[in-house]
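Progress report, Aim 2. The chain analyzed during this reporting quarter is listed below.
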Amino acid sequence: MTFYSENISPDNLTGAVFAIEGIKDACVILNGPTGCKFYHSAVSDSQYLRSLSFDPLEYSEDFYFGQPRVPSTYLDSHDYVFGSGEKLTAILRSVTKKNFKLIAVINSPGAALIGDDLEKFLQQEVSGIYCFSMENTGYSGSFGVGYQNAIMKVMDTITMCPKSTRKKTVNLIGLCIYQKYFESNYKAIEALLNLCGIEVISALGATDSVETITHAPEAQLNVVLYPEYGMKIAEKFKAEYEIPYIVPDEGPPIGFDAAEAFIRQVCIALDANPEKAIEVIERARARAYLFLARYSSLLGLPKGSLFSVKAEASVAYALTKWLCTYLGMIPAAVSILPEADTSFNIKLKDFLTGISYEEVLDRPIIETPTHMLFADGSTISQLKLNDDTFCGVEIAMPTLGYVDVTEKFLFGERGALFLLEQVINGLRFI
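Predicted structure tokens for the chain:
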């Protein structure tokens, strides 16, 4: 059976939109038909809540169509022939009244073919507000390319502070609002680093304001949490502001070992003391042992149970290694998203080869029986169509629609406890 929906993944247009929508006081104007607007607006609003009202009538003005985010020029056949200038002028006049600090006009792929001079309209209608346009985000590029290009465009547009390094400070690179629990993960890493006397200046497109981002050049170090979404940004910082960067050797801080390795690596780079943060991680590890020991003594699980993972290479590496080495679980299938990072592809393959399971990289997720599936909601729902008995754990977007009232984490010691809770409870019903 061919699963065509497996090929559906966010592209560079989506990456560019969510990069800007992740900035606290920025707005994306989508120059395109209404069909390009609704998904981006819905996800932006659900992932990063700005408005307290859910009444569509609150957003009945032109260009918003009952949603609080990503106003659109709603292009039609007339506009594709005669241009979108009239609508662009009107939407810019509307948006500039809403106290945004940054406005970005982004063409949909179809609108890019019209050839309107977006910069001309921005110069005519916007004053006193940072603004830029992206006439073409690419026609077949990946989410990571669009995201990084948009963040770098922000860096070129706003007035960044002069380089004046503040000791023991970092930027977190690669966090994005299109990541599961991104805001909680930001808080988790910031809390651990603060215990080490390290200040986080900015995470760029992960809820920081324009003002906060302007101080990013003051950081002593850039930490690339997701190389798939941050390497080009980190290299730009290094070239323009001489800020060195590191990529955590064990990938994103998922699991106790990776979290500890992350803290130690950052502290070595900044000559900071990691002991307070390590103590917090060790206390969480001790708590995990109490539950894991009792659970394993009764059922022998989770050791020997099967798991599958669908994620970016860096996430897949960190999660797979933790599940195998800490919980003794067995990989059934590991699928890498198009947002691949060569170094972590190699690390993942080497790890699986070392435990004699390299063949799982070639197995399709949807056709492989498993006990636990760590993936996005869409992939979990696809596997459920096979009538397989398994537990799905959402670690990526899109979701199945579960509303997270309580904060949840994937990073740090709290993320490790959350994932362990999912495994222990999930295996009980298989």
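The longest strand covers residues 330-336. The mean pLDDT is 92. These observations will guide the mutagenesis work planned for the next reporting period.
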